[in-house]
Amino acid sequence: MADIKLPPYILQELPDITESINFPIKNIQRIKYTCFDVSKSLIVFGATSGGIYVFNRWPCEFIQLIPNKDGPITRLAISINEKHIGFSNGKGMVTVTECDQNLSRNDSTTSSKEHLGNEVTTMIWSGNMLFTGDDVGKVSVLQLNSFITKSMFHGSSQIIMSLDSRICQLDCRDCMLLVSTLTRCYICNTAQEQYRQIGQKLRDGEFGACFIVSETMANGTTETNIEITEVKKYNIVDDAQFVVGDEFSNALMYCARPSSRIWEATVDGMVRRTHQFKQVLAKPPMKIITTKSYENENVAIENEKYECEGQSVNFSRIYSMNSVIFSFNKRALYFLNINEVDDTVWYVYDDIVDCRTINDMLYVWLSNGSLVSLKFMKIDKFLVKCYIDEKYVLCAELCALYKEYLLENNLTMKMHILIGLRDKLKNNGLLSSVEEVLIKIDKLKSSEATQLKSGIYVVDNPYSQSLLDENFDIKHNDDNLFNTLSPEALQALKGLSVTVSGKFNSSKKILKEKWEDFEEKVKNFSDRNQEITPIRQFDSENTPKWVARDDYSLDDTPVINDEIIFKESSQETIEIDNNLQSKEDKFCKLLYQYSRLSLVNKESESNLISIVEDYSCDISEIYELMLLLEQYCKTVGAIEDSKFVPNNIFLTYLNTCMRKSDLLDLIIKNDVLYKYFVNSCIAVNVKTQKLMNIGCECGFPLPYVRTSQRPVFSELIDEFIERQWSNQTKEQCYEMCKRMPYLWRKILYLRRNEDLLHILRILVQMLDESLLHSFLPQFTLDTWDRAIQLYATLHANICLNCNKKFDNISVRDMLSWDDLGSLIIKSIGGRNAINIMKKHANLIDTGALTIKFYHTCLMVCLFEKIDVTITVALVDTLYSAYEFEEARKQLYALLRNSSDGKICNTALPLIIAATSEHWGLKHVYEKINKTNININDVLEIMTPQLDCTLCGLPLQNDFLIKDGGLWAFKCGHSFHGACLNLNKIKLCPSCTLN
Predict the structure, then answer these.
(1) Rounded to an integer, what distance in angstroms lies between the CA atom of residue 672 and that of residue 76?
(2) CA–CA separation, 344 vs 359, rounded Å?
(3) Element (H, E) at 457
């Protein structure tokens, strides 16, 4: 394989973020994501509920839910300045809402009805304008006009183009809009309000188009501020009349054509040439470097076993991505190199739904709900990354594999770090194979400075953080301390962290020697690289923040400053040390050092216990030590740490020490300790963003989906609440719950034996399905009568405790009337559920209760005559079955055949049973095709149970299936319907015999 000329590109899989993305909806089966978009710092998903789920891109964490009442979202796009999100629903309504990451309650929206009744197919932002295309060829623009007030804006919208067919893709560059339909491509000058066709030959199908721009933003667009004073319908003009400014003289457009071809055209609409990729795509696909293979240094680049002929691909959407054009379809990713066609690469990737690009990052959304993040980079950049990550063998193997490319092409000075492979490799054979490459790399140092005509030498910093960091963003460039460090210095930092980890209680002398060794290394590196700027000193205002390891990000990079860990060269630290005479001061320093080291290494909690208990085992004295630690943090300039560090250490100690129960009892009895414990819990959770504003002003919890998130030290807090309750300090529990609404769950659990009416308000307001399930046995007709009244009030976004309206969330997105109906059916049966809903019909919106609720009530009425124990499983199964068309048909047929109010048995048709995990066929449900289910697929998955135990014949018997179908009982045992009817069986015969 070394003789084969490989394209110099690598596609690396980054750590999985799917769990973070799916976290807000993981416990809500009725809500699914429908579309997504990516920007510089955000990932945004639209959902079937109409809600918009906003995430930070790095680190990937949920920020907020933007509610919307207009139905499922089909398309969305984030504005370039990330202040607005444009989205459309299934009816063609286009809306723009503010993207307020602070969850302010003054969100504003503006809407456009230009595409009402049509399907919105694509949308893209250009400055303050949102361009939208639909399935009948209409292109509209919605322009935002801001007022003085930040939260107030309105928009003007109008159709600007009516073309011949479906809009496939839009792209923008400044005032130029590129439009691709099923048959043609058009270039539109929005400033001149005119457009023209690109080329003359027509086509038929989904084909994309994009600009190639020098400074790419999300999805290949540039940040602009185009202002249009009046929106008009544009005119199509001929070649001579189409106006293009000089600023676009070097801009190019690329338009996809059939059979793996792409037109290259200038912005005036003239086609320059056609690029053909059919033959180059006959090459085997390359392999993606997975996180596991990268970690194990077992990487295969090319898929040699894959046989492929020339591919005739229709590139339905194309995007500019660094030096290539990116496209995709359901089963593959394509990176098309326009300048060097032979360097085109493609990768096999199954079940792709959609993709988004941002710089060199690629986000792939799969049909199973996973979101995969990939990084596309040139081999030289990847080699430096391998070296920094200490993948020395892999780095050398790739140098040997790409030897020809590395020797023939100019290399960046950043690769000079690879010269260290000589010291790192013990494999002489591998080292000899890359010796020529290392010789060339060694010569890079001589070309570090360039002499200008004036005689001045210009020296570039060869060690850019953007080359080394997977998630580096330009906005971090000035703030990142390590931006000016060479890779060798970064290696020394990494070596220090490994040395210090887990050895905090060892001799201070050893640690000081390690630090001095590290200082010497950095000094040597600075001597070797005079152009590298020395590490700048930070004042107290810029002292690094304490950040939990799970929330670590670039902004929180620990700073090597004068106050941290044994850096004896710091005059300020020497002065502080000289003043540390008391026992308290010495222990404060040890605790602060422990907290700083825990930023970069997982410090053993036993070390913390040892430090604290060496000082004292009395909880009051430990509390006093925490107050002294707070003052110490301020003394060394760590103002932001002064509250959080003592709080975190205090709770960590309580959570891990052997005397936890006794200490909690002491804290509860002491008002000062109690207050400090509660404040610590609040401070730690707010700092690490584990709690959000999920409570009403009165202290009642709001029905917010993220209340399911457990706070930091949740087990400790739960035990604290339980002990308070047993000590009859309930009022204190309520006060704590008002500050941490999550804890109401624990209160409800502790009050589970009380009269339900006493806690009904708070139980309903939490709208937690799992919590409501646990209380179902206690509900009666009277209880549900009151609960429905409360839910109707809550449904109007009114707090059940203080009657104040809240606007930051939408209750109807949390638990619908249908979902409430399912709980009522499980609790009091189908007949009673219909009666009580009928009684309160005036409180229920028209159409809020769907046919799903009524059919389920009827089925429960039929089944509970035979077996009342299966009601809960039956309700869950029928609600789940309504997502499948074939299952709904089977249910309708079953109800029609039971028009006399009787059923033959308690089994369900096999198709219905297979669409739920609650009816004994969970293993089938997990494997069925969620979009198209049929009886043969179900039977194939059910292997080895292929025989009916009543007749001994295979279940897959066409005659018997036609005669009575296939049926499954709640236990999962399945039989021919004809056999059940013949034997007049009502309950599962297999379970009855057993």
Answers:
(1) 51
(2) 18
(3) strand 457-459
What Cα–Cα distance (Å) separates residue 506 from each residue in 509, 607, 899?
A: 9, 10, 81
209-212 and 9-13 strand pairing? unpaired
Q: Interhelix angle for 379-388 vs 487-500, to 10°?
A: 30
Task: Evaluate the omega torsion of the peptide bond into residue 954 and state whether it is cis, within 30 degrees of 0.
Answer: no
Query: Contact, 52 vs 76, CB < 8 A?
Result: yes
The angle subtended at Cα 524 by Cα 521 and Cα 529, nearest 5°, is 125
What is the rounded distance in angstroms from the CA atom of residue 327 to the CA atom of residue 318?
5
Nearest to 238 by CA among 280, 187, 203: 187
- Only one residue has tokens 């739920």, namely 916
Global pTM? 0.51
Q: Quick one: which H or E segment has residue 774?
A: helix 769-775
| Amino acid (one-letter) located at 944 | P
Encoded amino acid at 523, one letter:
K
**Contact (Cβ atoms closer than 8 angstroms) between residue 397 and residue 435:** no
Residue 129 structure tokens: 């304008």
CA distances from 571 to 478, 568, 590, 725 (A): 26, 8, 19, 52
Tokens of 115: 């595409």
- 598: tokens are 């825990």
> What count of Cα atoms within 13 Å lies in the side-chain half-sphere of residue 107?
25
What's the sign of the alpha-carbon dihedral 826, 832, 835, 836?
negative
User: Phi then psi for 327, rounded to 5 degrees?
Assistant: -145, 170
- Element housing 677 (H / E): helix 671-687
Report the 10 Å Cβ neighbour count for 486: 22
pLDDT digits (tens, 9 = 90+) for 96-136: 998 864 433 445 788 899 899 899 999 999 988 999 999 99
Please give the helix or strand (H or E) that residue 132 lies within, else none.
Answer: strand 129-134
| H-helix or E-strand spanning residue 180 | strand 176-181
Neighbour count for residue 248 (Cβ, 10 Å): 19
d(CA 811, CA 820): 12
* Helix spans in 796-921 (H): 817-828, 830-839, 851-863, 871-881, 885-897, 910-914
Q: With contact defined as beta carbons under 8 Å apart, do 40 and 217 qualify?
A: yes
CA 328 to chain centre: 21
d(CA 28, CA 20): 15
What is the DSSP-derived secondary structure letter of residue 702? P
Burial environment of residue 905 by CB neighbours within 10 A (0 to 12, 13 to 18, 19 or more): buried
CB 963 within 8 A of CB 948: no
Buried b (16+ CB within 10 A) or exposed e, 82-110: bbbbbbbbebbbbbbbbbbeebeeeebbb
- Mark 733-745 as b/e (b = at least 16 C-beta within 10 Å): beebbbebbbbbb
Whole-number CA gyration radius for the chain: 33
Per-residue exposure over 841-871, b if at least 16 CB sit within 10 Å of its own CB, e if not: eebbeeeebeebbebbbbbbbbbbeebeebb
Task: Return the minimum-mean-pLDDT range out of 525-529, 530-534, 697-701, 761-765.
Answer: 530-534
pLDDT tens, position by position, 603-658: 566 678 888 888 888 888 888 888 888 888 888 777 777 878 888 888 888 888 88
Alpha helix stretches (DSSP H) within 57-157 = none
3-state secondary structure 972-985: CCEEEHHHHHHHCC
Query: In DSSP terms, which residues pair with 286 in a beta bridge?
Result: 302, 347
Residues 976, 948: contact at Cβ < 8 Å?
A: yes
Single-letter code of the amino acid located at 53: Y
> Are the C-beta atoms of 776 and 823 separated by less than 8 Å?
yes
CA 116 to chain centre: 31
* Amino acid residing at 230: E
Taking 3-state DSSP, the helix, strand and coil percentages for the chain, each rounded to the nearest 5, stand at 40, 20, 40
> How far is Cα 140 from Cα 162, in angstroms, rounded to an integer?
9
Cα–Cα distance measured from residue 207 to residue 979, given in angstroms and rounded to the nearest whole number: 55
